[in-house]
Each structure stands twice: as C-alpha cells, then as structure tokens.
From TrEMBL:
<protein>
    <submittedName>
        <fullName>U32 family peptidase</fullName>
    </submittedName>
</protein>
<feature type="domain" description="Peptidase U32 collagenase">
    <location>
        <begin position="405"/>
        <end position="518"/>
    </location>
</feature>
<dbReference type="InterPro" id="IPR001539">
    <property type="entry name" value="Peptidase_U32"/>
</dbReference>
<dbReference type="Pfam" id="PF12392">
    <property type="entry name" value="DUF3656"/>
</dbReference>
<dbReference type="InterPro" id="IPR020988">
    <property type="entry name" value="Pept_U32_collagenase"/>
</dbReference>
<dbReference type="Pfam" id="PF01136">
    <property type="entry name" value="Peptidase_U32"/>
</dbReference>
<dbReference type="InterPro" id="IPR051454">
    <property type="entry name" value="RNA/ubiquinone_mod_enzymes"/>
</dbReference>
Amino acid sequence: MQTSNHLELLAPAGDWEAMRAAVANGADAVYFGLSQFNARARAANFTLDELPKVMDFLHRRNVRGFVAMNTLIFSDELPDAEKFIAAMAAAGVDAVIVQDLGLVQLMKRIAPTLPIHGSTQMTLTEPRGIAFVHKLGVERVVLARELSLNDIRKVTANTDVPVEVFVHGALCVAYSGQCLTSEALGGRSANRGQCAQACRLPYELIVDGERRDLGDKAYLLSPQDLAAYDHIAPLIEAGVISFKIEGRLKGGPYVAATTKTYRQAIDAAVANADFRLPRKDELDLAQTFSRGLTPGFLDGVNHQKLVRGRFPKSRGVKLGTVAGVSRLGVTVRLAEQLPVEELIRAGDGVLFDIGTPQEQEPGGRVWKVEVPKAHPSRRVGFAEVTLTFEANALDHSRIPVGCEVWKTDDPALRKKLEQTYSQDKIARRQPVTATLAGTVGGPLTLTFRDATAVWPGPLEVATKRATTADEIREQLARLGDTPFELAGVTLDLPPNVLVPKSVLNDLRRQAAKSLADTVLTSRRQAIAEANALTSLRKSFTPHSEPRTPHLTVLVRSLDQLDAVLSVRPAMVYCDFEDARRYADAVSRANAAGVPIGVAPLRVWKPGEDGFQSLVVRAKPDAVLVRNLASIGYFREQLPTATLIGDFSLNVANDLTAGILLAEGLERLVPSFDLNWDQFAALMAHADPTRFEAVVHQHMPMFHNEYCVFAHTLSNGKDHTECGRPCDRHRVELRDRTGANFPVLADAGCRNTVFNSVPQSAAEYVGGMRKLGVNWFRVDLLRETPEQIRPLLARYARVIAGQDDGRTAWRELRALNQLGVTRGSLQVV
C-alpha cells in the first residue's frame, strides 16, 4: 500500500465556490478550466487574468492546481494557445491536462518543466499508447473510464508512467475523445467542450425495422453515475496514484460532499483500515447529484446495470413508493430503515416518478411530515409516512399508487455542506522543522526550511525566569493561517536566555510568510522559447505541386467489397465486425489488383492483442490506424504496409499532423471536428498531399464499450452471456424527430451509433483540390451493391473536376430518402 504522500485526491472546480469547497474538504489538487480550450465550456471557468490569483489561493493552502486544456486545438488557434501556455507557466500552474498531441509538443518547447497530464480525451487504454504520449513529454495519464480493475492492473504492470482514474461523477456513454454526436447533429463538438448531451435524450429501439416495446426504458444511452468510494483500496493496490472526481459543471455542495467522502476513503486505505460509508452518508452523497450510483466498468462490463433507462437527469435519493393518496396528503412507504428525520423533513423537495421525465412530473416542497400515531417514537425507522403539501401546490390525481418517490432537494444538507467551506480554513498543512539560534548580546534567527527571519536583538540572559523549550515550541506552533504545521524544533541557544513571546511571534510570522512566498516563486516555470510555434512551423515546408486525385472507399462487408473492386478505386479499406474475414478480403482484392487496407479496433484494451494479430495475418497493403497504441505495433509487425491515420486520431492542427507523420504514417484523415475554415487553416500549414479527406459518410457519432444489443435484446452482462444478438438483428435508435440512427458492433463488441443522414462534402472537393488535397474517401455503411456503383461514379466525376459538386449534391439529395447534409465542414 502506498503512503498518502504518493497519492492524490483531485477535485473539480467550475467556479470559486467549488474551488473553496474542494480545498476546505481535503483535496490534494484541484483541476479547473480557463476561458478557452477546456472540455467544459458551459462551466463558469476562470479568466487568464484570474489565473495568478487562483494559483496563489491554492498554493497558500498547500493544494496543487491543474489547468484543463483538454480540447483539440485548430491550426489558427495555436498562437492563442501559445499565450495561454506562457501565462500558465508564469502563474505557477502545477500541471496542464491536455488532449491534443500538437499542444503537448508546443508546451514542451515553450515551458519544458511545466508538467503535462494526458487527458482521458486521449482515449488511453493500453500501455503502448501510454508509451507513445510519454515519449512526447506526457508525465501522467488519465485512463479511459471503460477500463476494469483487471485492465488497470495490466496497464500499470507494463508502464512506469503514473496513472490517474476517475472515481466519481457522470459517465459518458461513448469513449471520451471518440464522441462526434454533438458535432454531427449541431456543429457543437464534445472535443471542444461543447457537448450537447444527446446521450441523455430518449430513444426508441428499432429491431429489424420494427419498434420494440421496452416498457419504461427510454433513455437507452444514458448511463448511471460512477461511484467508486468502496474501490479505493484495490485501485491503490492496482497502482493508481490519483483519484479524480468529475463535476466542473456542478456546485459547491456536490464538490464538498464528494471530496470529503473520497478523502476519508483514501486515508482509510493508507491506514490499512476498513472503509465502509454509512448508509446515511451514501444517501447524502447521492442527494448532491445522482442518476443512480454504479461502479461503472471497474468491476467489468455489465450491460444490464450501467444504463437504467428510466430518466436522464439527477433525481437525488429514492425516498420510497406511494402507498396511498388522499386530498390531504400522500402516504409513502419508505425505502430506507433510518430515522424519519434523516430521510425526509418539511422543506425538502420531492418528485413523483410517473414515467414521463421528458415532461413536468408532479412534485413540490413538503409542507409537513406526519408519522403514524401507532409509532410515536421518531428514533426508529418507520414503514410509512404521510407527506402534505401547501394547498393547490400538487395535483394529487396525477399520482398513482405504487409510483416511486424521489427526494430531489435537501436544503438542510445543502446548508451543512456549504458550512464546510464558508470559513477559509486551511485543510492541508505541510510539516516544517524550525531552527531557532542566537548568542547572548547578538541577534536571534528563526529558520523554517530555507526561509529565515532575524531579530537584531540583543538576546539577553534572563534576570528572573528563562524561556523554556516548551514555551518556544508553543509560540512557533501557532501557524494557523499558514499552509504549514510545526513538525519539530531545533534550539541552538545559550542556557537561561529570555526570548520575548512578541519576538517569537514576529519571527514566526516573518519566516512563515517568507517560506510561503518562496514556495510560490519556486512553482513558476521558466519560458525556454518565446516563439516556439514560429520555430516549429519553419522546420516544415509544404509540398504544393499538383497531384493526380485518388478515390478510396471503405466497405463493411464482403458483398460491398466485391461491388467496389469492380470500380477499381485507388484503395479499398475493410472495416468488418468479424476480423477473421480480413484474410478472405485481402485475397479477393489481390486477385482484382486493387490495393487493400484493413481497419483494426478503434479502441485497443489490454488482452486484445488477438484482434490485432488477425490484421497482421491477413497481410494487407495498408492498415487504417485508429489509436495511438497501434502505430508502433503495426510498424513493427507489418513493416512493408502503408499506415494511414484515421479520423479517430483527432488530427486538428499541423503540429499533431507533423508528430504522426514523423512516426511513419503515410497519410492522415483530418479530424471530423474541422469546419471548412479550420480545414483550410490546417492545409495552409501542412503538406496537403499527406491528407485523405472523407467526402461521404454517415458520421460515426457514439463509440461505446456499452452494448445496446446486449442491453436490450438479451439478459447477458457481457459477450460471454449475451448470445450475440448483433449477429442476427439489425438495430437502429429512433430519436424524438423520427430519425433512425444505425447501430453496429465491432470485433471487440463495442457499438458505434451512426448518424441517420449521410453527409457529403461534394461541394467542397473543388476547394480541397485547390488547397492541394488529392486523396478522397467514401465511407459506406449499409449501401447495397446496386447502390454503390452510381454513388462512386458521382464522386469520381467530382474529384476529377468533371462536376463542381453541385450536381452530385442535388443527385444525392434526390436519391437518398433522408437527403444528405453538408456535415461538419459547413461553417455554422
């Protein structure tokens, strides 16, 4: 078991209130965002001008401060990012949490000693990917939330890079860094901190073209929240060093409750003491924010438990069920065996779950809580209570017997939590040893570590009573308003001297302030290269000579492959659910004389090397690389194959592109987060001939470890129990507008939910050609062989310059039942 000095509790702060709550309740470090470049754009965040004040506040309380700069950065934003980096270094930021690889490179050039933590947005799930980012300068990694305890053990056993995990808060249904839903539906990218939370919307299940009745399940992509307070000890044993609480959009009471809980859990684990959160504390924790609490993936995949499906928002705590309704009140059968006053009080907010969370459900503030007369004592739990409400505040006729009752608000609890941070008390202190030295007739010197304060004296021999060592220690220990605590005192004084208390107090204040100022100054990072971006860009000269355009096609079945081979594109890529068919696909393409690439898993978890080996054994001409772990692996295993970096590598700027090209990738698919202006900015600073633009596709929106097929069409918790309904059924999710979103499984049993409407960049191809791009890709989804030839013929004309794209656009709109969209390239 590690010591507390090596472990970290990392709490969120979306504003000053939350920051004070985190500090007061025992956080070792706090992470927060600035006005740009952070994945919680809707949080209040902090301005760049506030940053020195924020870091001063944290450091004077012995708490570290991490800035979340965890979004993709576009090429035209890199100059602004450069200014942010310099400001963070000057302010003494303890670490920066980063998603973008190019930003890592820029930071290491500007401020080499500024620590960098790889965000969970990097989708790091395997030691090879961690090794890749560590080589760039990342010092700690935040693992994907989809890893189990066993997965984490396998990761830490094969890397020396410190590992951080989320232990509490909201769970995204998709892998962080791999969700394009908000971008696809509204141009608001989750990779840019603008998630529109489409996962929290209701969906109908369409199976083989027919609506499947799921009863009260409607929120099929909305997971419950993570709570791992009882997993802290095994996580420490697994090698985790930092425990992260999600919640920069949540308020101070939530931050206070979660920080306090995990402080207790970590301290207990360090002391080798059993930790069990009392039931009342569990309920209080859920009350601050909860969609239902779950261990997430830490205990392994469980598709039946992760998503409950009844409601998408926090409901607090389940109070019980309705046992009776009258015009005077509602009788509730309580769900907990706790004293009534601990469960419900006048003033609490309640909601009656009638199964319509998308509408206004009945609820309100409790006016009075009545305990049955047969049980006059309030010191034991009661089976039932009657809740009364203010006159006309509640429509009793809408409340059915048997419906669940939720306590949505507890003002007394909120006040109690707010009191924990209402006074600015130092919760974390750093031990210091004091040395007090002097000679008779000379000065008196107090040293705290490397900070010294001097009283000129003269120090005198006592005429009555000398100052004792205990009295000196008592005065020096009064460090209440500082981030220090006295660990010990060394005295180098002649015998029988008099040291006035006023002198000791003054020396203590001076030395403590000097030490605190020294600590603050020491945390500032030096700027090594002021014009790093210019320097990096000077090292690259783009090639702009005209090139012959090439059309590539991605297929998802052997039938599609056969149809595409007859068209003879420059290359065909296979993205099959069953990777065992890749060898057959390569054989067919070789016979047709068409170069072929295959796609390994988009996410590579520990123990999944077998899927990669199927790609190697197929001996393709190219590999469509989809994660950082795969780069070195396929470079080694298939040294003659062309490696093409797919969209999931999130190439949004020229620095990231340069890093990946230097690692041996031949071409890169630009991030789907780019609109036209951002795409053009990328091409202006990079070699456009090294990019492959996807010009037709159904946008891959969600990419999930959670399986819709298993959850809805089986009772199995994972692939060993589900019976593989994905092999037998065709599934879509239908949203409130009637749009159907196809769901496909991959070889690792992960699901991808695709946009219902294809997007076409036909009208942008001419502009791309002018920028120097000469590789263009069409991604098929469920197109039949009969639909493929005319579709590819249209795009072949466009890239050859025989159609400006407008004709193709009109034809596609006419042919497709749902039409087409211009997609993410369109500037909104």
